[in-house]
Design a protein that fits this description.
The complex is a heterotrimer of chains A (400), B (337) and C (289). Chain A has twelve helices and 15 strands. With 400 residues, chain A is of the alpha/beta class. Chain B has a single domain, classed as ABC transporter involved in vitamin B12 uptake, BtuC (Orthogonal Bundle). In chain B, 76% of the residues lie in helices and 0% in strands. In chain C, 72% of the residues lie in helices and 3% in strands. The chains are: A alpha/beta (400), B mainly alpha (337), C mainly alpha (289). Chains A and B meet through helix 1, helix 2, strand 3, helix 3 and helix 4 of A and helix 1, helix 2, helix 3, helix 6 and helix 13 of B.
Chain lengths: 400, 337, 289
């Protein structure tokens, strides 16, 4: 009797487990790819949630802004964005999303890619599937060498760092302290700056690497103060790290004691300027884009972007915008028939009139060539802006 | 006298019945084989679910069966992932030996760190020590950029053909078969271990340490053993992820991964063997579906699901199911008094 | 010598910050025994409330603080009634799952309401900058934090040890049944304790935003720090939490100043070391069951 009942119990239990598994499988099945009609699909792989949700917001906002300005139909085809969330630098997820976009959604382009590891992880996939892929943000030099189907419209870290070193030397700075976030891009920025600065004859008198999860900058800034350099070159993650660093920098009175702060534009991100407030006034940075850039393209971009997002766009949004511009160009040139190799041929050497100024995709490296501006943080009409005052024309990535 | 004998044999049949593979279990694994033919475009996703499920199984061994709460289990997953990745990046492309080395490396780490856990203190202390070890390891991988690639990830991972014949392809067919095979082998191993006297000893240890000690169960040796074995399995799961994605990101060591894993296991149900797989499937499917529907705010819906589950489905999916089964039994008992 | 004193001051100040953001958890986790991983949600709520009160309602920084405390405390009662109470006697795992669910919802909710970016916090002029005392540069805001910490510690210790309410809490925690039979309304006491812990979390969040920043991931990002301080200190002990916060603060700052290469490792290594020495926390009580 009892044995019977026990068996029954386990059977009920097992059947239920089985049903659950089947439910899962059915759930998997519900989204089999729908047939492609007269649309061009662009799969955007980026960070929509988590610590880096800002990346996705800007990239997608920028892409949508371009479609707002230029309509969603090119060469008779409707352009459709398919947005996928990586949740952060998680390469296995990025790779899976790319695979699904290719084999299930049958996209014509892949775009987005906020982080280097995500871009590197999908390189073999897009090569195998011959999918033209537009890097809208990730900034490590080597990325474009990893697949012949990568083209980048954003920037590389050495590209924006070198002009900063050159400008600093030209202005008479000789003793500089570097402070970078302790992770790959930070190490790259540190190396690029040091290389360019010492080559001209300057001296880096101290180096600090700050852990990413460090809410406390006090001791690092104190070390800088004790070392008494003429200026500090800083590269930290935009967001709370930049805010915390700037606050400590001012609280400890470094700005007052005449130590100038130099950085790349990601630290002085347009989107966080208002969060930084007065703390950042007078900081010099080098970058490819500022919302304060004066041009008709930039005005159009800002007007379109504000329809999606009440907050200010930044360089990532411009990456999204220009990435879509490149994709539209390819569709136009190929008259709506997308083929991986032909698309790459169109992308190579393509020139675009971007909100940041003129840019070009290098025919040899498929990497972006653009103007780098030196800017200073100023208060204009109650808001804080990076005001450009000097231009390095058509800078190529020196990291290659 | 005969009474005790009868009771003994009843217990024995109970244990034996538990040990037998049940039809539903067999169906479970066959269904997974079926996935290969029915959903050829979802294979990568399902193999990642299986890897996570295997990883959750290893957590189940120490959390569900031995009762050790840990928030640093990703440490072993990551060690395995990096071990396999480093081998493949430095010229050793054969996958199966990569798995072995990865398991070994993780096992050694598990063995060594198990001694830090036997110092006493409550669940919280253990939780924080494991968490601390995990975070330290993450920082080590981050600062050893030269060897691990740091946050940019380990590049140049090239995995050779399986048995020298089957290459890893775009659709993930080889990867799926490979992962399924390894997952099944390790599951069968774990299953038989948990149904052996050793598994019973572990359970009694979780229920009451003092009594377990009194009936002669060597607690600290048991703890070291199970922790090491769990680490080996976690390491192999990590290596599987490396080999199927052919890339290692530093997130394999992240706190997020440990925390997600804990959630997955609780959702699935602890000490059930299948809880990890079920939890992984539910969590990852929910995450995938929700984030496709609503890329920006899907966390909200996931949160709602978790809260509803805690309020109405204690003990996870499988726990809830077994209570349903209990209800059914109760109802049957009433039917036939 | 000067730099040694400076480092010591910075360390104590950092410890004060750690204390402020974690003391609320010491109460919910330590006294009530609820594994409330969602502590950071209340801290985050405090931060966003402060920002909103200051920018939208034009309330000053100082008067906003007690308002934040009260609103978060009262608001937490809603959650206590609807969700937390049902799980007081559940397994820790269920409590963890519930609080993680709350974190997810709060994260998505704040992203929806305020966007994913950093929130600007402007502390008043008189609190920014440094005092120069005998060649030492002391941050004004940090001094202010230290004063608050002293205040909170005294109030809590006095409140828990010397008042009737404190006695009720201790009685309810130690033995719920006996407390009930003595006529203590344990449910009510737990409610008040929960509100107190959450209010303190909110206050801590509000005080912390200037240093830690504020975005929707606050609750997850600093979870490790909250737990670290509370567990090392010994859950439920206010003095223990204070001691742990100060110790870890000084160790972290001194480590980062003198051996910056190891910056990221120090606080975790210190935690593991302390926990191996004191498995029950610095001043933890062994809970008799």
């Amino acid at each position: 009797m009892e044995k019977q009942r026990h068996n029954l119990l386990t059977i009920v239990h097992d059947v239920a487990v089985f049903l659950m598994v089947m439910c899962g499988i059915v759930a998997l099945a519900t989204d089999q790819a729908h047939a492609a009609g007269d649309t061009i699909k662009v799969g955007i792989i980026t960070e929509m949630t988590g610590t880096f949700a800002d990346f996705g917001r800007h990239i997608v906002g920028g892409a949508k802004a371009y479609m707002k300005v230029n309509g969603d139909t090119v060469a008779g085809k409707k352009v459709e964005l398919i947005i996928r969330d990586t949740t952060g630098p998680v390469p296995d997820v990025a790779k899976r999303l790319a695979q699904e976009l290719i084999v299930k959604d049958k996209v014509d382009f892949i775009a987005g890619l906020g982080f280097t590891p995500n871009a590197l992880a999908i390189a073999p996939l897009v090569t195998e599937a011959k999918k033209p892929t537009i890097i809208m943000n990730a900034a490590t030099s080597i990325i474009t060498t990893k697949s012949p189907y990568f083209a980048r419209v954003s920037m590389t870290l050495p590209q924006v760092t070198e002009p900063m070193a050159q400008w600093a030397f030209k202005k008479g700075y000789r003793k500089i302290y570097t402070l970078v976030a302790d992770y790959g891009p930070g190490h790259d920025a540190e190396a690029a700056f040091k290389k360019a600065f010492t080559k001209m004859g300057g001296e880096v008198i101290g180096e600090s690497r700050v852990p990413l999860k460090s809410p406390e900058f006090g001791p690092y800034v104190q070390r800088i103060k004790d070392a008494k350099p003429q200026a500090v070159f800083a590269f930290v993650m935009p967001g709370e790290m930049a805010v915390a660093f700037m606050k400590t920098y001012n609280e400890r009175g470094l700005a007052k004691s005449g130590i100038k702060l130099l950085s790349t534009g990601d630290v002085m991100d347009d989107a966080v300027q208002d969060a930084l407030g007065d703390h950042a006034l007078g900081v010099i940075s080098s970058h490819q884009y500022s919302v304060a850039h004066k041009s008709q393209e930039n005005k159009n971009f800002l007007a379109a972007y504000s329809k999606f997002d009440p907050q200010r766009p930044n360089f990532m949004a411009v990456g999204g915008y220009d990435g879509m511009a490149a994709i539209y160009n390819v569709i136009k040139q190929l008259n709506g028939k997308i083929d991986g190799d032909k698309a790459m041929a169109v992308l190579k050497g393509m020139k675009l009139n971007s909100p940041r100024g003129p840019i070009q995709i290098d025919a040899a490296t498929r990497d972006v060539v653009q103007n780098i501006y030196i800017r200073e943080v100023k208060k204009v009409d109650g808001h804080y802006y990076n005001v450009e005052f000097e231009t390095f024309n058509a800078v190529k990535d020196p990291g290659k | 006298m005969s009474d005790t004998l009868a009771r003994d044999s009843r217990h024995l049949t109970f244990l034996r019945a538990r040990e037998r593979w049940k039809p539903a279990e067999i169906a479970f694994w066959f269904a997974l084989v079926g996935v290969y033919f029915v959903f050829p475009t979802n294979l990568i996703f399902v193999s990642q679910i299986l890897i996570t499920g295997l990883f959750a199984l290893s957590l189940d061994m120490i959390l569900g069966y031995a009762g050790i709460v840990t928030l640093g289990h990703a440490a072993f997953f990551g060690i395995g992932a990096y071990a396999a990745g480093l081998m493949a990046a430095h010229g050793w492309h054969e996958p199966l030996s990569g798995l072995l080395v990865a398991g070994l490396a993780a096992g050694i780490a598990g063995y060594l760190s198990s001694f830090l856990l036997s110092r006493g203190g409550g669940d919280l202390t253990r939780l924080m020590i494991t968490l601390g070890i995990g975070l330290l390891l993450f920082e080590v991988a981050n600062s050893a950029t030269k060897y691990t690639g740091g946050v940019d990830g380990l590049q140049g991972v090239e995995v050779g053909k399986l048995f020298g014949v089957f290459g890893f392809d775009l659709y993930g067919k080889t990867a799926y078969a490979y992962v399924l095979g390894i997952a099944f082998l390790l599951f069968a191993f774990t299953r038989s271990m948990m149904h052996s006297p050793y598994g019973l000893a572990l359970r009694s240890m979780r229920e009451n340490q003092t009594r377990a000690l009194a009936i002669g169960i060597p607690i600290s040796a048991c703890l070291t053993n199970i922790y090491t074995i769990a680490a080996v399995i976690a390491g192999i799961a990590g290596a599987l992820l490396t080999q199927t994605t052919q890339f290692v990101g530093i997130d394999v060591l992240s706190f997020q991964r440990s925390a997600d894993l804990l959630i997955i296991l609780i959702i699935g149900g602890t000490a059930t063997l299948y809880g990890g797989f079920v939890g992984a499937a539910v969590f990852m499917l929910a995450q995938d579906r929700l984030s496709n529907l609503n890329p920006q705010y899907w966390l909200f819906w996931l949160g709602i699901i978790l809260i509803v589950m805690t309020l109405y489905l204690r003990g996870g999916m499988l726990g809830g199911l077994s209570r349903l089964a209990d209800l059914y039994r109760h109802w049957r008992n009433k039917e036939r008094p | 010598m000067l730099s040694l004193l400076g480092v010591l001051f910075d360390g104590l100040a950092y410890g004060a910050l750690l204390f402020v953001i974690s003391v609320g958890l010491s109460i919910t986790l330590g006294l009530m025994g609820f594994n409330n991983l969602a502590h950071g949600v209340f801290a985050m709520a405090g931060g966003y409330l402060l920002v909103t009160l200051m920018s939208k309602a034009g309330i000053g920084f100082l008067p906003a603080l007690p308002i934040v405390f009260c609103i978060v405390a009262v608001g937490s009662l809603v959650l206590e009634r609807t969700l937390y109470r049902q799980l007081y006697k559940s397994t820790p795992l269920d409590q963890v799952l519930l609080s993680v669910g709350i974190i997810f919802i709060a994260t998505a909710g704040t992203t929806f309401l305020w966007g994913p970016g950093q929130q600007p916090v402007v502390i008043p002029e008189w609190l920014s900058g440094q005092y120069s005392v005998l060649g030492l540069d002391l941050s004004r805001y940090r001094l202010f934090l230290m004063a608050i910490v002293a205040g909170i510690t005294l109030a809590l210790v006095f409140g828990l040890e010397r008042t009737r309410f404190g006695a009720k809490i201790r009685a309810s925690v130690d033995n719920q049944r006996t407390a009930e039979s003595m006529g203590i309304r344990v449910e009510r006491v737990f409610q008040m304790t929960f509100a107190l812990g959450s209010g303190l979390a909110g206050l801590g969040g509000a005080l912390g935003v200037d240093v830690l920043g504020l975005d929707p991931n606050f609750a997850i990002k600093y979870l490790v720090y909250f737990l670290l301080v509370v567990v090392v200190g010994g859950p439920g002990s206010v003095f223990g939490t204070l001691l742990a916060a100060l110790l870890l603060g000084v160790a972290d700052i001194a480590g980062k100043y003198y051996v910056p290469q190891l910056g990221a490792f120090i606080i975790y290594a210190a935690m593991i070391f302390l926990l191996l020495l004191f498995p029950h926390g610095l001043l933890g009580r062994r809970k008799s069951k």
